[in-house]
Amino acid sequence: MMRRAAAGGRGVRAARRPELRLPPLRPYDGGLEPDGDYDGLDFGRANLTGQDGAGARFLDCALTGCALDGTRLPRARLLDSVLTGVRGVGTDLAEATLRDVELADARLGGTRLHGAALERVLIRGGRIDYVNLRAARLTDVVFEDCVLVEPDFGGARLERVGFAGCTLRGADFHAATLTDVDLRGAAALDLARGVDRLAGAVISPAQLVDLAPVFAAALGVRVEG
User: CB burial class (10 A; 0-12, 13-18, 19+) of residue 221?
Assistant: First the structure.
């Protein structure tokens, strides 16, 4: 990792971003149903609080300003869709699939994404607190200009993942596997656990200096004046 950082990160493959072109959408003012099929719909500012959409499929959909407090979407599939300004606490997306999705300006807390699969996903702006991504698979995912408070990547697999202009506070990479993960663009990088799992990531020289105490602690090295 340190050799790659010193070499300027050459050979690090950048994440592929989603290319979304939504068709004309039909307004939708109904609720969610387990295993529901939602195609080409605009959910507007729908209140989906506490609703159950387990196993549902969303294709070419837009969710704008929706309330997702306690919304159940385990094993759901969100495909070629845009979520803008959604908000909620305790949204359940365990084992969900997100592919070619843009999540913009979200305000989420305690979101459950453990075991989920994210592919070509852009998470831009907003703030996400205490997201559970344990054992998830992230491929071609970009976190851009957002705040992540205590994100849990424990046991996750991250491949071609970038953090551009993000603030990471108390990030947990325990038992994670990283491949072509670019942390250089993070505005702030604070690790709670998993510094020993950063092989396969690239950091900047400044970040290396900032993380030196964490590396020393992980190696059992005492630094004394």
Answer: exposed
Reduce the secondary structure of 143-190 to three states and give it as a string: EECCEEECCECCCCEEEEEEEECCEEEEEECCCCEEEEEECCCCCEEE
213 three-state secondary structure: helix
Cβ(63)–Cβ(81) below 8 Å: yes
Please state, in angstroms and rounded to a whole number, the distance separating the CA atoms of residues 56 and 6: 46
pTM above 0.85, yes or no: yes
Separation of alpha carbons 138 and 157, rounded Å: 6
Residue 14 has what DSSP assignment? P
Residue 12, amino acid: V
pLDDT digits 0-9 by tens, 19-46: 999 999 999 988 999 999 999 999 999 9
